[in-house]
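Help: read this over?
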Amino acid sequence: MADIRSVGVVGAGQMGNGIAHVFALAGYDVLLNDISQASIDKALATIEKNLDRQVTRGKITAEDKAAAQGRIRTTLKLADLGATDLIIEAATERETVKQAIFEDLLPHLKPSTILTSNTSSISITRLASRTDRPEKFMGFHFMNPVPVMQLVELIRGIATDQDTWDSLHEVVRKLGKTAASAEDFPAFIVNRILMPMINEAVYTLYEGVGNVKSIDESLKLGANHPMGPLELADFIGLDTCLAIMNVLHDGLADTKYRPCPLLTKYVEAGWLGRKTQRGFYDYRGETPVPTR
């Protein structure tokens, strides 16, 4: 198996900072990249806040926190990640963006570097085909929020070799998480099941079967879900939900995956959920208020 000691993370957003957090805490040297210094600064502040929460809850010590923070370096230059053993792309869920990142990385990589994508829906085989190492390319899908969620989906492309698979399976073990093997089909396992449920909840709202509050309370109290589907959609990001539904609809050519027009309308309005302060709930006040 590959000897993975250093990890490059592309994208310092919600997923990227969480990935950097768990790798640094597990003893890996982390190089976190973004195109914006403001995004990097925000990510470091988020990591510190989340580490503090773990210290307060007794899950780690203050010494663990300090050591983890000391293992995280940052850069605005994508090329700097070329010296790392493993690269995890955690950029926006748009295939053209991901392809451009991998193409820009290629001239700077070590021959042994493993490339991965944290994509929640896009074909791993197709992404790998745009690189010079499809045998060393995999889907490495963490769940949000990364420091809390136990599961990591491992997705092979058609060319992924056994050594790469074994290496990433061992990384997941060292992170203290659980790996699930998924085939390279649109949205893999979790989002293949989760996103159509969310989309159906939006249809239920769109058709007037129930309002936001009644739909969320029904699933929380009637199905014992920790979050209602519309609340969860806001947490994930409505643009991400729409992108995944489009991948499912296009990739499987089945009308049951057609995105709800109301979901599209919210995204077109820029109401993307928590990250924009408005989605199915309005978060601008002291407590979230349903928008429908």
